[in-house]
Specification:
The protein has helices spanning about 5-15, 25-40, 100-105, 105-130, 160-180, 190-205, 240-245, 255-260, 270-285, 295-305, 320-330, 340-345, 345-350, 355-370, and strands at about 45, 55, 60-70, 75-80, 85-95, 140-145, 150-155, 160, 210, 220, 230, 235-240. By secondary structure, the chain is an alpha+beta fold. Helix 9 (about 270-285) packs across helix 11. The relative contact order is 0.10. The structure holds adenosine-5'-diphosphate and magnesium ion (MG). InterPro entries: Kinase-like_dom_sf, Prot_kinase_dom, Protein_kinase_ATP_BS.
């Protein structure tokens, strides 16, 4: 279908005068095929590691094990891939909407959803083939189903949000039982490992000339082996794509003040991920989101933009390296805030650079805090 036909049909949809196949959906499917051809993995094939040949795959190849989470446009399931016996996560995302739903009526909403899916596939696939990384879940491939697409991804066990809730409860119980007055905060070393692992994931994306734009505790996954990974690449932008870069998105709670104000300078745009990392770590450190959320959204956003930054201090119970790392991320002025390559130079990052050490420490920490 040509671009002008698509646009004409789109206008008819907006005017309620169209009943044929959804032109946007057709365009989206064509784009997926083109993009995946470019990335050398057609829909309906999965590749379990960069060294292995892709194999054919259908939705019938999976045994459902459990539901892992709720995505914005579908569920995430843990499944077993019967032919190989591998466990995986499948992220289903609706692409055909009920004609009476808001998504179906709103041309721009659907376009945003399709856009997001194309970016997510591209980012996952590029991260997977470019250079093996321990900090972004492996991406195996995708299927186009009747009403949805399914992304097959490495499965992990819990989110950083789950982890800090478990840890908080455990600490609270210990404090009550032992009647001590230890301050209630996330243990230092595992928090440092989360910080450094997510920094490594950000550096990997940067090598692909991309930024994440949705860093928050729910988009950080961990497993019982002690791995920490940054998931949900739905809002990734590639930096050469200068049109996409100005679009504001991601959970507002973690967006940098300059993005919320809308007056960012493109040169510093990449630093907004650094702010989101800072808020994420501060939330984990204190076991709660650092701003008051019991207010209207506009007041919450005003707090982020105009109130002094909630920095870590000596009462939080952390050493100088951790305090410095988090507070550097939370420098309000993006010009002064460090780049991710500068964060890598900080003492916390050099101290926790041994991946095996980190994994072992995190493995023990998770097994002591989370019930299987
Ligand atoms: N690979 C995975 N392994 C385990 N759980 C996952 C995985 N991917 C996603 N989840 C769970 O599903 C939730 C939603 O997935 P996500 O990719 O963040 O979707 P959305 O873009 O809609 O936020 C996550 O917060 C997490 O709880
Ligand atoms: Mg998410």
């Amino acid at each position: 279908m040509s671009g002008s036909t698509v646009r004409r049909n789109a206008q008819k949809i907006i005017d309620g005068k169209y009943s044929g196949p959804d032109p946007l959906l057709e365009e989206f499917k064509t784009m997926i095929y083109e993009r995946l051809e470019e990335l050398q993995l057609p829909p309906g094939k999965i590749q379990l590691s960069p060294e292995l040949d892709p194999i054919d795959c259908t939705n019938d190849d999976f045994d459902f094990i459990e539901k892992l989470g709720e995505g914005s446009f579908g569920e995430v399931h843990k499944v077993k891939h019967i032919p190989t016996g591998n466990l995986m996560a499948i992220k289903y995302q609706t692409i055909v909407f009920d004609p009476h739903s808001d998504e179906a009526r709103e041309y721009w909403t659907r376009q945003k959803i399709y856009d997001r899916l194309i970016r997510e596939i591209t980012a996952f696939r590029k991260a997977f083939v470019s250079k093996f990384t321990n900090f972004i879940p492996s991406y195996y491939g995708m299927l186009i189903l009747e009403k949805s697409v399914a992304f097959c991804i490495e499965v992990l066990d819990l989110t950083a949000e789950n982890l800090y809730h478990c840890h908080k409860n455990k600490k609270r119980d210990a404090i009550i039982t032992n009647d001590n007055n230890e301050s209630l905060h996330f243990e230092e070393k595992p928090l440092a490992i989360v910080a450094i692992s997510i920094l490594k994931a950000m550096l990997h994306l940067r090598n692909l000339k991309a930024m994440h734009r949705d860093i928050k505790p729910r988009n950080i996954l961990l497993n019982f082996n002690g791995d920490v990974k940054l998931c949900d690449l739905g809002l990734v932008v590639f930096l050469e794509d200068s049109a996409a870069i100005s679009i504001q998105s991601g959970s507002k709670l973690y967006l940098a003040p300059e993005i919320l104000r809308g007056d960012f300078v493109t040169e510093y745009r990449v630093k907004s991920d650094v702010w989101s990392l800072g808020i994420t770590l501060l939330e984990m450190a204190r076991f709660r989101y650092p701003f008051n959320t019991d207010v209207l959204e506009k007041d919450l956003l005003f707090q982020i933009i105009a109130k002094p930054v909630p920095i870590l201090n000596e009462n939080d119970g952390y050493n100088e390296e951790m305090t410095h790392f988090i507070n550097q991320c939370l420098i309000k002025d993006p010009k002064q805030r460090p780049h991710i390559t500068e964060l890598e130079m900080l003492e916390l990052a050099t101290k926790f650079s041994d991946i095996n050490f980190n994994r072992n420490l995190m493995k023990d920490f998770i097994s002591n805090n989370v019930e299987r």
